[in-house]
Design brief:
With 468 residues, the protein is an alpha/beta fold. Helices cover 39% and strands 13% of the residues. The strands form three sheets. Strands 1-2-3-4-5-7-10-11 form an eight-stranded parallel barrel, surrounded by five helices. Helix 2 runs parallel beside helix 4. It is an enzyme of class 3 (hydrolase). This is 6-phospho-beta-glucosidase. GO terms for molecular function: 6-phospho-beta-glucosidase activity. Its EC number is 3.2.1.86.
Length: 468
């Protein structure tokens, strides 16, 4: 069986990991531009400014800025129906608080969208994908400050108007739920905690301001072009109870509550009982200002986009309600010790649709692995083909057998890009190999892997043929 007609096949990237050209044509610094590269799982260092003698992976990334025509041609050769990317916010508003945008930045994305349309590829655009302007972090406290709601709205209205008719699918914040799940939500919200700050209170505050900004973006986007489809985007952590013990089942619920907190507000338009229970568990609250409730209610999203890489297991502990681990004796694991669980994707699709009855979009799913270039120049990545094939099969089952409406599937990432966690290149996801090493050296030459031809076959068969 095939996927539905008009199913959007493609791949997904983020500007901070892919684009490069970090100061070209008037671009300002983003939060990614002061993250020093790391090696072999060592945490990245975050600086307050660009310091000489340090390697910052986002500065060049793999230079999509100067290779976009070559890369888009390769995507078209695979048969892409869509391409998910992000607009680098400080390329449009270098500081983030200006009244007028940077024309050179706007013109760059015009060229990219025009090139995509030349091949019949639909752009799918994330408005904020770990690229908050650094100036807003340093001078406004990032999303702690409600001023960012209007700054974000101005940015959104600018790109909605500029690219009207060129872009129809938008997402507001990438993996917004990781704001609550991370110890410090720097990538998601530009937040590093100050000494003495109450972490949970800050997480609730910045999340609330981002909810309001998302709702305002939805309203603006629909007003500019009623054809626009604007979604939220979360990281979905399918989670199983470790046993059928009731307390383990409760632990699984506690693990999922911070994630549904975000989709409840953005999809239902208000803080649900789950949200208030989660705030109580965190020992904090949200202060609603006049007009907030009305804005949230009027700015609900059109669809839910999500990333899915692996599943987890929750168990109850004596000192806390919930402990989450990735060890699952029923699953194999990747080079990075992530469980391989295609059935978890089918479960995720069912859980989300059962809860919200909104169309879904799988916008990240992929296998990070160490690829070897053989003496003949080939890259035999059968492990990637098996991983993606099994997940696409599970996706098809959710559509065919479970009646879940899915807009499309964009694997992460169709071309090798910088790791967001460490800045490394050795953790590769792509169908296209990029000659770049962890220290930043390399020619940036592009080379097709074995999986390139396989994904081309998958798309040509509309998902019917996923065999190796």
């Amino acid at each position: 069986m095939e996927m539905p007609k008009k199913f959007l096949w493609g791949g997904a990237t983020a500007a901070n990991q892919y684009e490069g050209a970090y100061q070209t044509d008037g671009k300002g610094l983003s939060i990614a531009d002061v993250e020093k590269g790391a090696r072999h799982g060592v945490p990245r260092e975050i600086h307050t400014q660009v310091m000489e003698g340090n390697y910052y992976p986002s500065h060049e990334a793999v230079d999509f800025y100067h290779h976009y025509k070559e890369d888009i041609a390769l995507f078209a050769e695979m048969g892409f129906k869509c391409f998910r990317m992000s607009i680098n916010w400080p390329r449009i508003f270098p500081q983030g608080d200006e009244l007028q945008p940077n024309e050179a930045g706007l013109a760059f994305y015009d060229r990219v969208f025009d090139e995509l349309h030349r091949y019949g590829i639909e752009p799918v655009v994330t408005l904020s994908h770990y690229e908050t302007p650094l100036y807003l972090v340093q001078h406004y406290g990032s999303w702690r400050n409600r001023a960012l709601i209007d700054f974000f709205a101005r940015y959104c209205e600018t790109v909605f108007r500029r690219y009207k008719g060129k872009v129809r699918y938008w997402m507001t914040f990438n993996e917004i739920n990781e704001t609550m799940n991370q110890s410090e939500p720097y990538h998601q919200a530009g937040v590093l905690f100050a000494e003495g700050e109450e972490h949970n209170a800050v997480k609730a505050l910045v999340s609330h301001n981002m909810f309001l900004a998302s709702a305002k973006a939805v309203q603006i986007g629909h007003a500019v072009d009623p054809e626009n489809k604007i979604g939220c985007m979360i990281q979905y952590p399918t989670t199983y109870p470790r046993t059928c013990a009731p307390k383990d089942v409760l632990a699984q619920r506690f693990q999922m509550m911070p994630n549904y907190y975000y989709t409840d507000v953005m999809c239902r338009g208000h803080y649900t009982s789950l949200c208030t229970a989660q705030l109580r568990r965190m020992g904090t609250s949200v202060e609603m200002q006049p007009g907030d409730a009305e804005l949230l209610a009027a700015g609900t999203v059109d669809y839910i986009a999500f990333s899915y890489y692996f599943s987890s297991v929750a168990r109850a502990t004596e000192d806390t309600d919930c402990c989450v681990e990735r060890s699952n004796p029923y699953l194999q694991r990747t080079d990075w010790d992530w469980p391989i669980d295609p059935d978890g994707l089918r479960i995720a699709l069912n859980e989300l649709y059962d809860r919200y009855e909104l169309p879904l979009f799988v916008v990240e799913n992929g296998l990070g692995a160490i690829d070897t270039v053989e003496p003949d120049g080939s890259i035999q990545d059968d492990y990637r083909i098996r991983f993606l094939g099994s997940h696409i099969d599970a996706l098809r089952q959710a559509i065919e057998l479970d009646d879940v409406p899915v807009i499309g599937y964009t694997c992460w990432g169709p071309i090798d890009i910088i790791s967001v966690g460490t800045g490394e290149m050795r953790k590769r996801y792509g169908f296209i190999y990029v000659d770049k090493k962890d220290d930043g050296s390399g020619t940036l030459a592009r080379k097709k892997k074995k999986s390139f031809a396989w994904y081309k076959k998958v798309i040509a068969s509309n998902g019917a043929d996923t065999a190796l």
